Structures
1.
Amino acid sequence: MQQNNQPLINNTVLVVDDDEVNREILTEILDDDYNLIVTASGEQALDVLDHGPALVLLDIMMPGIDGYETCRRIKELAGPDRRSPHVILVSAKASTTERVRGYEAGADDYLVKPFDEDELLAKVRVQLRLYDALSRLDRANAHNAARADVLENVVEEQSREIADSRDLVVFALAKLAESRDPETGAHLERIRAYCQILAEQLAADSPYAPLIDQAFIDAIYLASPLHDIGKVGIPDAILLKPGRLTNEEYDLMKHHTDIGADALEEVAGHSTGGGFLSMAIEIARSHHEKFDGTGYPNGISGHEIPLSARITAVADVFDALTSVRVYKSAFGPTVARSMIENDSGTHFDPVVVEAFCKRFDDFCEIRQHMNDEAVQSTPSAA
């Protein structure tokens, strides 16, 4: 009931009737309570709609455009940002057929001449209140939509900040593990760039294209630097040994794959990282598996090895071959490529090797752009 006492947003009524007497009668009844606009034809009514009436009292039988057509044109002016005025058709025709025809033209109500003054006023009040309520709802919806847009932008910005922070933390953890080996330089930066290039090539032109979407490419860029995070659990005496490892030491070194994957699984259990963490676990555990089944830790082969790990294996070995270590000098990129091609089908997935060869120039560019200060080439390096 309280709503009915609210002042109307719009109390303008447009009277349209070609009969002067009818116009005068309607004016006398309505003029004290409403802001009136009075016209004598449908054409004139359409011309003054920009004045924004909330209600149109519309005669049907008029020369020129009749009331039905005028009503249709009024309703057609409605849009997302504009509510059309309500229309009460006023006519001496009282048959059901005429009423239905009026409602089909878009009329909101129908009043038969000669009309009762109280009925007219009641119908006007109802339609204006209805128009008012719908207009308030439109405003509320527009306000809520604007607030929703602002909220969506805030959420998107916060999501980006969270994702950026997550990426920085993940890469910082990987760098922390890598920092125990002072000779790895820009290894992680190169690994993720290599993996991204391989994934893009495989997505564009390979049998694996259906398996690789943009989410996969984004995930491997983020996850691949964690491939050796398990080395934090390997003693310095083994990790930093300048010479060849003994069989016992090598067996201990191989445990870094399970150490890293288990640690990441523990993290995944407390995170919503989804595909990114799942891929990081795959890579950490399986990037030393070989396509022929002679790798570690589980000796799986072929497509049993996750695709992400098969991609990282090529990237990791290429980077290791072309980098200086305490126990070796760096091979040139061309020599490294030949070595990887020779191991296609045994160590590496042939499809991934093919993608590597197609993007070899990009690998060389990354190698040069993200070069380590300590790189030394052997005489045989290309």
2.
Amino acid sequence: MAQLLSSLIVTITSPTSGSTVKDTIPVNASVGVIGFLTVSRVDFYVDGNSYSVSWNTTSTNNGSHTLTAVATDNLGVRWNSDPVTVTVSNGPPPDTTPPSVTINQAAGQADPTSASPINFTAVFSEPVSGFTGSDVTISGTAGGTKTVTVSGGPSTYTVAVSGMTTSGTVIATIAAGVASDAAGNGNTASTSTDNSVTFNVADTTPPTVTINQAAGQADPTSAAPITFTAVFSEPVSGFTGSDVTISGTAGGTKTVTVSGG
């Protein structure tokens, strides 16, 4: 009979019912003893799952959860507290994903080309900061001291390369860790489908030309036409009969036709 007059009164003292919690919080309970019983242990539960005194709320989903405390007396009898309902409201998990980046020939970039600059397009998977021309690695066989300028952003950038002095390839890549997203994650190394452009030094040397009697042309002659051979130092276009000047003492209205080439 004395055992029936003994009990434990278990109460969760923090957090309070209806509160909103996040991160790791302490969970506290008080145990009132009526009669001769003693407390051998107190267990804490969240939605029926056992937890230690410190509750890492990030291990549960956001939303409503029920806390209970269970005290066990020296006879092994379990005594439950009234439930306490709290709302877990943790922010999104931290961003630990590095931005990726591709670099390829810019749309409309001629390949091969004799024009400078050569343009590439760098596209990051998310907005980044800290990306400059010095972060672009230029390789290839074209000679010269290359200069790289970057414009645009924060996700898509135009990369302009100038300074080529001899013919060859110009290849652009971006190393890992040169630009960062808002969470501070450095980018991964670039990937590409076409990041090479062939540069040809512009030809500024004019072609030379000789014009002489054609082989087999009789001189003097009474036959028409009189044939000459014009030889250019390299292939040309646009050469017609109107480009040949005829002079001398022979009379008449001269007509010039051009063939070959």
3.
Amino acid sequence: MTTALALLRRWVVEYFNGHNAEAARAFIAPDYALSIGDVVFAGRDEAWLPAVDIQMKAYPGLGMTVHQTLTGEDWAAIWFSEHGQTDERAAAWSGVGIYRSNGAVLTGCVAQEDYMTRRRQLKSGIADPVDPPAVAPWDIRPAPANPDAEAVVLEWLAHGWPCAEAQVRCDDDHITGTPLEFDVAETQIGELLSSGDHVAFNVRQVGTYRTGLPAPAAGPCAETLDCNGLLRVENGRVVSGRVIRDRMGLWSRMRAAV
């Protein structure tokens, strides 16, 4: 197990699922920063822990299930679901995070969580099932970086949304049957990391929103879209994976512009 993955395990088991802020202070740097799209929680005690505490108080039984991990020398990535109940309504929503380590503590994370999925479930009162857990997420071994696989993923991201690969799940498209349609003109890389044939990414896509969001969002409209994902590349093409896009941020900006 790499140091970064071991620290991520502590993040999930000791801090998040234990609702233990004091545990987090033992393995997370004081200047830790979490970035989610345009929102940055900079400072472990000043911003990040208080922000998560608000969510934990709203969802007293909040838990996390790990579906996939990926790791390299100083980083670890995770596909996870958070799930819990607030005001007698339950929800489960997925996310993808990429964590950085300095070899001793976690120093930062870029993440996306599907808050639009959570909103849908809380509004309807019907919770989605939680995807199956990974059997051994903390036993994954690092593989050499794969620049060819990274290049395939970067080219794939330029194609826009929805994607053509049925084995790549994006947000809750597979549940609602209403895909986000977004044309991509430019892809700005935040993180692009590989371990063998698996690639983790954080990107901002510049392009045109078409459709797929609730009213009052309406296209075509020039916009940006932040995305995180874990993808598998085989024989020069993307064959499977999980992608979370900041639909909530996109929708919020479009609502404010009306």
4.
Amino acid sequence: MKAPLVYWDHAATSRPKPPEVVQAIKDWFERLGVDASRGSTALHQEVSSRTADLRRRLGLLCGVPTERVILCSGATEAANLFLKGILNPGDRVFATPFEHNAVARPLLAMKKEGRIQLDLIPSDPLLGPDPEDLDRCLGSGPQPRLLCLNHASNVTGLVLDLPPLIRWAKDREALVLLDCAQTAGRIPLSDLEGHAYLVPGHKGLMGPPGVGALCLSRDCPIPRPLVEGGTGSPTPDGLMPQTLPHALEAGTPNTPGRMGLLAALTALEGREHILHQAELLSLKKIWDALGEWEEAKKLKRMGPHPDTRPRVAVLSLDLLGTDPHETAMLLEAQGFILRAGQHCAPWIHPLLGTHPYGTLRISPPAAVKKEEVQRFAASLFPY
């Protein structure tokens, strides 16, 4: 008899999606079928109105003006758009060890090309950086142009203490990029006062894959376009429009994805804190069930205790010599869907002592069954 599916990989993508999301996408394919800017029919106007509502909701989420919400294919495109469009030759960039490859790889590519100076902030991987760490990173060199901060680690679940870091950057007239992939839809963002926010639609916002946003504060410079092309409107000189958001949105948009994300945000409204607390309760049940294995030195739970520092519902296990990929495959046979490896966050693993194989990551939903938790703990080390 096949084991029932237990999906504990919500840090990768939330599952299942709300039924409203499925219905909104289905409605676009079956009834709407157009985008917001390539026509003026009643259908186009309806899609345009819904797209404007999506921007409004994302703007409220991040505390930025509606027109400064740039709709993208996800956080990776948003990161590339911002980093490659805002940085200039010779700029110095600070980044944390917690960065996802969406941020890390563009930065490394620009460093390899000799375009920027890149500094990783020395910090405790289980506590995160503080202003003193930034001072040490600064040394006697030039002031940074940009500070990149991952709001919450997708490896350990740690939520960084952002306000003092953002104040440090603003005191030095540096821009602040916030990667909110693990916090959007769970932890309030609108009071953080960053300059730019990376927001994927398919994680905590509960939307479909292939849609997200770059949200820019009112005082953030406008990046150069990453892509030029059609926007659905003419310009006098034939170049890209100069006004946002169209200046940074070229090409055929993922309109069904946008409709799905709007439906997700509507369904999520007012439930963010409730879901976050429920997911943390699920995580604590799993954390507690693994205590005996840690006492037996079979594994190490990586990240803050669920009752202590602010965190999201992400937990990594160092299996202390056991390959996490093999364990994940064995657990799949028991019905458990988890993630093994470096989780696209390579800089943190040498600090955690989990390089090169990474960890076994658990990111549970808002409700877990006692039987699931017990079966998981028993299945980790069956022999």
